[in-house]
Amino acid sequence: MCLAIPAQVVELRPDDNALVDLAGVKKEISLALVEGVAVGDYVIVHVGYALNKLDPEEAARTLKLFAEMGELASGDDLTIH
């Protein structure tokens, strides 16, 4: 199953790319669909693309819900594409 999940931008890279961190997992994604992203921002990631920026409080609530469901805690089939 693929989910659109919040991830924090840790590095901006050339060609509208960025390195994001999700619970310690780092992945390069495309920022081509979102403008004005800075290091430290949270974005919703799906199939390797940031879909939009996300308020930090909303990102924290969403990540907490995933953890409560066991998705982040157990790592079961959690994949960022």
Molecular structure report:
The protein is of the alpha+beta class and 81 residues long. Helices cover 22% and strands 40% of the residues. The protein has a five-stranded antiparallel β-sheet with strand order 3-2-1-4-5, covered by helices on one side. Strand 1 and strand 2 (17-22) form a beta hairpin. The longest helix has 14 residues, at 56-69. The chain starts with a strand and ends in a 7-residue tail after the last helix.
- Low-confidence regions: none
Distance N to C terminus = 11 Å
The CATH architecture is Roll
| Cα shape | globular
The share of residues in extended strands comes to: 35-45%
Give a quick account of the main beta sheet: strands, pairing sense, barrel closure.
5 strands, antiparallel
User: What Rg, in angstroms, do the CA atoms define?
Assistant: 12 Å
CATH fold-level assignment: SH3 type barrels
As a percent range, the share of helical residues equals 10-25%
Estimated structural class:
alpha+beta
* Helix and strand pattern: EEEEEHH
Tally of alpha and pi helices: 2
Quick one: CATH class? Mainly Beta
